[in-house]
Amino acid sequence: MPKLRRLGRMILAYTVAVALGVMLPLGSAGVVLAADFGTVEGSVIDQATSGGINPATIRVEQYDTGELVQEFSNYGDGSFMAALPVGTYRIGAFADGYIPEWYPESLDPADASQVIVEASGSITDINFTLEQGGTISGTVFNEWMGTEQNQVVAIWTADTLEMVTWMFSNEFEDHGRYMIGNLPYGDYKVSAGGPLPEDAQDPGNRNDNLVRGWWTSQETVPTSGEAEVISITDPTPIPNIDFQLQQGGRIEGRIVDENWNGLDGATITLEDYDTGEVIATTTSYNREGNDPGYYNFNGLNSAIDYLVWTTAPTRVIRYAKMHCSGTYDRDQATSYQLNPGVNVWLNDISLPYGGSISGTVYESDGTTPIAGANVTVQSWEDTGGDTWVSVIKTTDASGAFTVPGIPLGGYRVSALATGFAIEYNAAAGSVIDPAATEQVTVSPGTVDIAGIDFTLDAGGTISGSILNASQQPLAGCKVMALPVEPETGGPAGDDDVGFYSPFVAETDATGVYSIIGLPFGDYNILAQGGANAQYVSEWYDDQLIPENATGISLLAETPDVAGINFELALGGSIT
Length: 575
Hints:
Elements: H1 2-19, E1 37-46, E2 57-62, E3 68-73, E4 79-85, E5 87-94, E6 101-102, E7 115-117, E8 122-123, E9 128-130, E10 134-142, E11 152-157, E12 163-168, E13 177-183, E14 186-192, E15 213-215, E16 220-221, E17 230-232, E18 243-245, E19 249-256, E20 267-272, E21 278-283, E22 285-287, E23 291-300, E24 306-311, E25 318-319, E26 343-345, E27 349-350, E28 354-363, E29 374-379, E30 390-394, E31 400-407, E32 409-416, E33 423-424, E34 440-442, E35 448-449, E36 454-456, E37 459-468, E38 478-483, E39 504-506, E40 512-519, E41 521-528, E42 538-539, E43 552-554, E44 560-561, E45 566-568
Parallel strand pairs: 1-8, 1-9, 10-18, 19-26, 19-27, 28-35, 28-36, 37-44, 37-45
Antiparallel strand pairs: 1-4, 2-3, 2-5, 5-6, 5-7, 10-13, 11-12, 11-14, 14-15, 14-17, 15-16, 19-23, 20-21, 20-24, 22-23, 24-25, 28-31, 29-30, 29-32, 32-33, 32-34, 37-40, 38-39, 38-41, 41-42, 41-43
């Protein structure tokens, strides 16, 4: 009987394949060639009871593309069998009230193993053991307690804030209701409203200007940090996770090319100005067929300052700036804060053609990569204003970096890493002397510059703090390390206007500074008021002129020198 039942299921599997539209090869007599097919079989089991789960849905996808091949229900005892053309697949099992699983034992289809079906082959033991999952449900309201449909309700991991899944409100029983099931046991936070997830299709008929809110048992709060954790420990449904969303603001505008024509397909990114966290991304498009380059962000929180930047293939990266067509320097970008219900139309952001600069940062042996090094690309000519470019990128695990979206022009490129001396690009190899650096030119004929490599020698740091006479820390002071010239014994870098050094740091809110990337050698240290112009400059240690300064030696044996502290006195001014 078991053999007869298996034969019957095999015939049914081929019949199902035909019914589902799977292309079956035919022989000369017009019959199915079983030799060009194989079968897969297995079962879907409840982890808690070890009994078969029915009904369960088995999904078969092309492994490389994710294209659906077959989707069918299993048998009453939890088992299944399918006939598949020769190929490579991934297979998943789904059942109401259970956490979906991809073979073998994977929640993510990207982590599924290949199931390779060979001609006339039979693969058994494609088994799934499904764990019961939890359910969260509730209703989305607006500030007047009217229900809101088609709002995004998202489940996030409580510790890392990674989105687990999402759905639109009213996909369950209408009237702003939602129910998200099959959730693995664990701790979550839940949000509603705000921008659509990336690649989501807008269903229309939704208020797209509601601020994302996070659930607590008392009220809807504006930030994830204030949200309460929802713990799922068993299959018992968790209801009444409701939201009352507030009206938000809107940022909209246009992306244009160098001739002020609307540019479709540009990527626009919305960030938290203070933290750099990406809030949302979108793509410019032709609105209503007569407004190319249009974009918008809706449902923006009035408690956040926003920054907008954009780029497109073969184009530059540019930041939105009030009263102009954008800036290349993030520090010059405008911070936008919106009142509830207020729409802000930004100036058109112009994206001229650009290129990229790439390379690798190594240790002095030229083969050992340095991960986490900072590579700085700055305009060769210090023009200032909106044409000034200053970009910093961090090298990856292989020491490689790419700085995209660079406008056509000339650049100074340097690399800096903790424990190493800063070096500058030159044709013969990286150099320590900034005066010996050579220009990297991005031109119409050469837009992608590769091979800008660095070999960094070991270096050190000098650190300390700056206080005033009342022992209060001074933030924003400028501290320079100037190499001592062997011929004079005094500091290098006097340009007849003032002292200059590439080795500069600024004190933080606690008055602390750290100058990194210093080649080994002797230095004089100069502290200036910087943002505190009323304070008198001072050389270490407590000297007003460089000739009396105490030198600091950085050696391979003592690469890091701390405690180089200053106490700056108030001074006067002459105008």
